[in-house]
Design a protein that fits this description.
mainly alpha, ABC transporter involved in vitamin B12 uptake, BtuC, 14 helices, 0% strand
């Protein structure tokens, strides 16, 4: 009992640190960019009805963009954590296992066949595409007994992702909408509007809530399915609910910013190294660390080659690929 209380106290401290990290990165993201703004102007934009060129820029362009970064980072980090727990695969990530490329392919098909489709229709298509991509990967992995080995799942994910990417590109070329598809799939928060956030944020919040409510069950499931069944857990229902959460989180993220790999891979491993293997601790901390990471990546994208934009997906990939190779070499044990 005493040990459990100590763990809870330590978690509270770590949780507070993660919240402070998010606040600091948010302030930095709001201040720095192509246009010079001050902390005072950011404060006035957020807390008063003051007007001015910089204040309008902060409210209408920078603020919705950084809010998008917060929710996308949280969504991808948590969906990656759930996938790693469900599959017991240290390499699981929505961007590597077909979900985001499935959403991209569905997005391209929707733009081609229904050019007047509204944002809600595109978001629903992304959910369907993400689910289809995941089912293809896990279907291939389940063909042989013991098919959910990390290597086979990653290979299946790479093959399915390449196939779905080819579909998206082929649709873009055939229907002459490559530019429109590329604008979505480049991965970034450029042009994010409050109308888009009104649709996407509630979906991500539902996905995060499901994840938090099932974090205890996910911890048991991550040990082994036999243990979960032995403890009376209805594993099929838990897996279905968690799968729905993954689809909501990954699909909403792609609908907002396009393809974004490696965040769902990196953040859960980093958090696991800090808080341990209990998903009751991993998921809430991943929400804040993932959001902070995405804010940093977006800030770098806006400032490295200012006033030009560097694609956020490229920045994330530059940081994520070495991390991926490190996990492959260590077999995931380094961060568990």
């Amino acid at each position: 009992m005493k040990k459990e209380n100590q763990r809870s106290t330590l978690f509270i401290y770590k949780f507070i640190v993660s919240v402070l990290l998010l606040i600091i990165t948010f302030v930095i993201a709001m201040v720095f960019g192509a246009a010079d703004t001050s902390v005072k102007e950011v404060w006035l934009a957020l807390t008063s009805d003051a007007s001015g060129k910089n204040i309008s820029l902060i409210r209408e362009i920078r603020l919705p963009r950084e809010v998008a970064a917060i929710f996308v980072g949280a969504a991808l980090a948590v969906s990656g954590a759930i996938m790693q727990g469900m599959t017991r695969n240290p390499l699981a990530d929505p961007g590597l296992l077909g979900l985001t490329f499935g959403a991209n392919a569905a997005l391209a098909i929707t733009i081609a066949l229904f050019p007047s489709a509204n944002y809600l229709s595109i978001m629903i298509a992304c959910f369907i595409g993400a689910a289809a991509g995941a089912m293809m990967v896990f279907g291939i992995g389940a063909i042989k007994k013991g098919g959910f080995s990390p290597l086979r799942i990653v290979l299946a994910g790479a093959a399915v992702s390449a196939f779905l990417y080819a579909i998206a590109q082929g649709v873009g070329i055939y229907f002459k909408i490559s530019k429109d598809v590329s604008m979505w799939t480049a991965g970034g928060m450029i042009g994010t509007s409050w109308n888009q956030l009104q649709l996407v944020v509630p979906v991500i919040l539902i996905g995060l809530l499901i994840s938090l409510l099932l974090s205890r069950q996910l911890t048991i499931l991550s040990l082994s399915e036999e243990v979960a069944v032995g403890l009376g857990q209805k594993t099929l229902l838990v897996k279905i609910a968690l799968f729905i959460a993954i689809i909501l989180l990954a699909g909403a993220a792609v609908a907002l910013v396009g393809n974004m790999a490696f965040i769902g891979l990196m953040i859960p491993h980093i958090v696991r190294a800090v808080v341990g293997t209990d998903y009751r601790f991993i998921i809430p901390i991943s929400i804040f660390v993932g959001a902070a990471f995405m804010l940093v990546a977006d800030t770098l994208g806006r400032t490295i080659n200012s006033p030009y934009e560097t694609p956020v997906a490229a920045i994330v990939s530059i940081m994520g690929l070495p991390f991926f190779l490190l996990i492959v070499r260590k077999g995931g044990s380094m961060f568990s």
